Amino acid sequence: MTQTPTKPAHHHGDLRNALIKAGISLLDEGGIAALTLRKCAARAGVSHAAPAHHFDGLAGLKSAVAQEAFRLFSRHMMDAANAEGPSPRDRLRGICRGYVQFGLTHRALLETMFGLDAESLLRERIDPGDSDAYQILRDTCAPFVPPDTQKEVIEFQVWSLVHGYTMLFVSGRLGCLHPKNLGDGPFDQVMALLDRIGDTSSS
Amino acid sequence: MTQTPTKPAHHHGDLRNALIKAGISLLDEGGIAALTLRKCAARAGVSHAAPAHHFDGLAGLKSAVAQEAFRLFSRHMMDAANAEGPSPRDRLRGICRGYVQFGLTHRALLETMFGLDAESLLRERIDPGDSDAYQILRDTCAPFVPPDTQKEVIEFQVWSLVHGYTMLFVSGRLGCLHPKNLGDGPFDQVMALLDRIGDTSSS
DNA sequence: GCTTGCAACTTTACAGTGTCAAGTTCGATG
DNA sequence: CATCGAACTTGACACTGTAAAGTTGCAAGC
């Protein structure tokens, strides 16, 4: 045993990562309002001012949490793509499914990720276009690009569509559209449009 | 003159609307973090606890502000549609343009509108699908719907696409896509896909 | 081994926030 | 003119981010 167990330990060892991990838990459990410097500190077992030595205030913590969330997000979509099948079309469907699924499971995380302002993105050097997630999208979209079209056009159209659908769906905003009347499921609807994009060259 | 001008007036007359108006200004000026009960109260010239008699806490104020924002949003898109031209295709383009434009001008407003949770939507009876904005989208989309497709499918695909594009664009998230390399402008890209949707039946 | 320095963390303090309870004012209603 | 209640104020409390100053303990140099 240590000599005086009541005395506070002044060296955590891996506080930065512990705080980020605590932040993600808090977001998942209590929504966007639960992400608090003091709560993160408490959950990591340190005093309330300790995070200031690892992040630039609350904004800094949010950025770091978003950075880690993008990593989780990317891995989630990668798994979803791999689980779906080997063909590009199936992988693309998997990505769409993973996108929406991640949003439903971690909606506060998604809000933190895409709620960052441009400055925070720059400061933390977060560039979704350089992420694994977007690389998957890029690779999987490639076969769908018609020959007379810039591939970036398809990529950002697909991204916008899936992102918009996810955002609207996650926040319950598509209730007025009665998704249950729209076919076999939300993913088929997204895929229908993706197919339509790809069919431009074959018609 | 009144007898004692220093005495506080205990009846504002139209405090609820004044608070909502103050909230919208605060959002436009200082972003989402600037929307505060106390600041709204100060701007309306009342004490810090006065808003509690008109809204159910901060969440209630946010809902009311969002409700008004949806009204502004709807009118903005209506104007944009009318300014573009008489044909459905032009009107649809106008709506897309108005959507993005509103997002760029009032990004904090958009964040408040679409950041509401489902409970708040229900409590304030906010249903985007019943709004003028969505009615415009619905009417303007109608001519683009292929004969073998449910119209709701096209409507929600268009909405998802435009909403997603707006969200990504407004938060600077499309920077990695170098929009300047993508053609004549962002609106043309959205319209390209919209045209592609409509062309399904004609090919 | 001992000292020195410094990074990590704590403690204390302060302004701003939402929210509740109790008091005050004022207009309408009898 | 009295009264009653709605609209608003005042005061208080817990919680938040943030800054300043103090404390601890590891590690490098002698």
TrEMBL record, chains A, B:
InterPro entries: Homeodomain-like_sf, HTH-type_TetR-like_transc_reg, HTH_TetR, MT1864/Rv1816-like_C, Tet_transcr_reg_TetR-rel_C_sf. Keywords: DNA-binding, Transcription, Transcription regulation. It comes from the Bacteria. Residues 13-73 form the HTH tetR-type domain. One of its GO terms (molecular function) is DNA-binding transcription factor activity. Residues 36-55 bind DNA. The keyword Zinc-finger does not apply. This is TetR family transcriptional regulator.
